[in-house]
Design a protein that fits this description.
FAD; 10 helices; ETF_asu_C; alpha/beta; elongated
Amino acid sequence: MYSGAAIFPEDHTCRDVLVFVECQNLEMRQSSLEVLNVGCQLAVECHGKLGAIVIESDVSADELIRLASLCHYIILVQDRINPFEEDLYIRDLVSVCRQYKPNVFLLSATLFGKSIAPAIAVQLQVGLTADCTELRMDSSALIQIRPALGGELLAEIKTLNNHIQMATVASGGVQAAPPQAFLHTGTQLFKVDTAISRIELTDWRKAELSATPEHSEIVVGVGRGIKYENEFLAIRKFAQDIGASIGFTRAVIDESWADERNLIGQTGKSIKPRIYFAFGISGAIHHITGIRGAQYIIAVNTDREAPIFKYAHYGIVAEPLQFITDISKHLAAQREPSPAADG
């Protein structure tokens, strides 16, 4: 299953892109597949190779075979880690980066990736750009683009005088081309010393995934433009009627209207629903980052100049409450059985 005798070119430390592959239930997470696609593009642009780092206890043999088709080589860290032992993940990834010295090191901007990336950067003494929505190479320099100043603009960042350029990639934020076919050179076994985590898991609870925006086919988003309780109650009923989950912008969360677990945007969840309704949402970049993966965006706003209309597939200039009343009547009429034909 493993090839411990993989041979790497002497210059692989100069131009290569390494991606940490997160797994869940022994399978690669979709967010990591997206980052691998981004890493593929960067490796091509800088004439380097794409390597994937995976922890042995995280992944199945079948997934390793699948991963081999997505990169030039795999670095399989021989460690058995509990998914909650972040300190051991940090230790292992720091060790890999110190030995392989990649030009670029990428992680997913998941909750887990955001948690471990800063500690890795500190130990490697390198810079870190979080929640990137676009990445490209300028020769060997990584151009990192992310929302800044509350989402009012996109900052273009270049890491100077660092031996490793490190970034986390927003899920659904970077538009990546399909991966190319690579000549896989093998799997390198990376041995680490056995260690005991300083983190002790005392309790855990299973999340109700079906109720969260990132697992829904239809999502209803609520923004600062929804000011009154009757509007919110109408939107919530509308969401229930169409089988949608509800998400919120940062402005709504900050005003204590809603649970931060349903925050959509750069600092919250990135979603990929079939349909996304945006009610009273202006369209700041940090929110748009989280909804780029939506197949259809339907925006309802009283401000015809709202930036959200630049991103929406369908835009309606109207009071959200009036729109909901009208569309609910239409949907109710569609559900009513047709009168039986005479004769």
